[in-house]
């Protein structure tokens, strides 16, 4: 019987690396994404190359009806299985000083980076609780811990995600379900394209950006049985860039 994992934003960046890590750990991986079909197909190939299998689950995590519909349809098609690992990595950023920030950029970031937590986690939760085993890992951000200028929308969403992680962890801990957040600093993905890496490296004690594989290794630990006593926590992975 395969074990199932769902990774939102699994087509690129950190989510893609998490898909490959989970495949290497033996999970059948449901790869969620919203628009980039070619990247998603390539991520599925990488999952297969890692020795497992998976499938694509295309939906906008910020769209409640779409998210609940896709997850419920999968559950109805697999009545004997359940998603035991959920990694929420779908995210966007639309940086600007608050003075100049348009309402649509506030709304888009809150919708994708925070509402997605509710839209995707809730339909996955009951089967985890019934099976008395589950692992939920939310990809937050250093920005959600300390705030960053130009990111009031993103910091608010990620800070909210961290708070939701802590609350949910306390709700489901008695049922064997752990809920944690990972807070990366700068990780080399499409999301940081356009940032001045040479300049920013000087501010990072480790003097480099992290890799998606390094974040995936941490997620791989958190979803394992050995991490059963870690819940409601936020684990930073930022090369020493705490403030
Ligand atoms: P990325 O390379 O830009 O990839 C974003 C992924 O999210 C893609 O798979 C994309 O799908 C998916 N996505 C975006 N909006 C979506 C939506 N509405 N519904 C479903 N999927 C959606 O980003 P990344 O750097 O890997 O970031 C992953 C997570 O880590 C994000 O939550 C981000 O905030 C967080 N993070 C990143 C960094 C960093 O330095 N990179 C630092 C801290 C936190 P498509 O391919 O279809 O577009």
- In the sheet with the most strands, the strands line up as 3-2-1-4-5-6-7
Strand-residue fraction?
Answer: 15-25%
Structural class: alpha/beta
The number of distinct β-strands equals 7
Compressed to H and E, one letter per element, the order equals EHEHEHEHEHHEHHE
Unreliable residue stretches: none
Distance between the termini: 45 Å
Bound molecules: NADP nicotinamide-adenine-dinucleotide phosphate
Largest sheet: 7 strands, parallel
Shape descriptor reads globular
Gyration radius, in Å: 17 Å
- What integer is the average pLDDT? 97
Q: Which percent bin holds the helix content?
A: 40-55%
Task: Describe this structure as you would to a colleague.
By secondary structure, this protein is of the alpha/beta class. Helices cover 45% and strands 17% of the residues. It is built from 8 helices and 7 strands; from the N terminus they run E-H-E-H-E-H-E-H-E-H-H-E-H-H-E. The protein has helices spanning 13-24, 37-49, 64-77, 103-131, 142-146, 152-172, 197-201, 212-222; strands at residues 3-8, 27-33, 54-58, 83-88, 134-139, 177-184, 234-237. It has a 7-stranded parallel sheet with strand order 3-2-1-4-5-6-7, with helices on both faces. Strand 4, helix 4 and strand 5 form a beta-alpha-beta unit. Helix 1 packs parallel to helix 2 (37-49) and helix 3 packs parallel to helix 4. The chain is globular. It starts with a strand and ends in a 6-residue tail after the last strand. The mean pLDDT is 97. The structure holds NADP nicotinamide-adenine-dinucleotide phosphate. NADP nicotinamide-adenine-dinucleotide phosphate (NAP) is lined by residues 8-9, 11-15, 32-36, 39, 60-62, 89-92, 112, 139, 141, 184, 186-187, 189-192. NADP nicotinamide-adenine-dinucleotide phosphate binds at residues 8-9, 11-15, 32-36, 39, 60-62, 89-92, 112, 139, 141, 184, 186-187, 189-192.
């Amino acid at each position: 019987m395969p074990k199932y994992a769902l990774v939102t934003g699994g087509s690129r960046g950190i989510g893609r690396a998490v898909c490959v890590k989970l495949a290497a750990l033996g999970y059948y991986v449901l790869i969620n994404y919203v628009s980039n079909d070619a990247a998603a197909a390539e991520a599925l190939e990488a999952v297969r190359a890692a020795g497992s299998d998976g499938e694509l689950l295309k939906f906008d995590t910020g769209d409640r009806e779409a998210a609940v519909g896709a997850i419920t349809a999968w559950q109805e098609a697999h009545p004997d299985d359940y998603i035991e690992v959920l990694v929420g990595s779908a995210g966007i950023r639309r940086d600007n000083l608050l003075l100049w920030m348009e309402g649509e950029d506030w709304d888009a970031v809150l919708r994708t980076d925070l509402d997605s937590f509710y839209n995707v986690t809730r339909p996955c939760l009951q089967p985890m609780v019934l099976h008395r085993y589950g692992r939920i890992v939310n990809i937050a951000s250093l920005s959600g811990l300390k705030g960053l200028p130009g990111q009031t929308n993103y910091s608010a969403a990620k800070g909210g995600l961290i708070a939701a992680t802590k609350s949910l962890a306390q709700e489901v801990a008695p049922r064997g379900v752990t809920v944690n957040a990972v807070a990366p600093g700068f990780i080399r993905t499409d999301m940081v394209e356009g940032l001045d890496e040479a300049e920013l490296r000087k501010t990072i004690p480790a003097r480099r950006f992290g890799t998606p594989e390094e974040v995936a290794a941490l997620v791989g630990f958190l979803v394992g049985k050995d991490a059963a006593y870690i819940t409601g926590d936020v684990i930073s992975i930022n090369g020493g860039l705490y403030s």
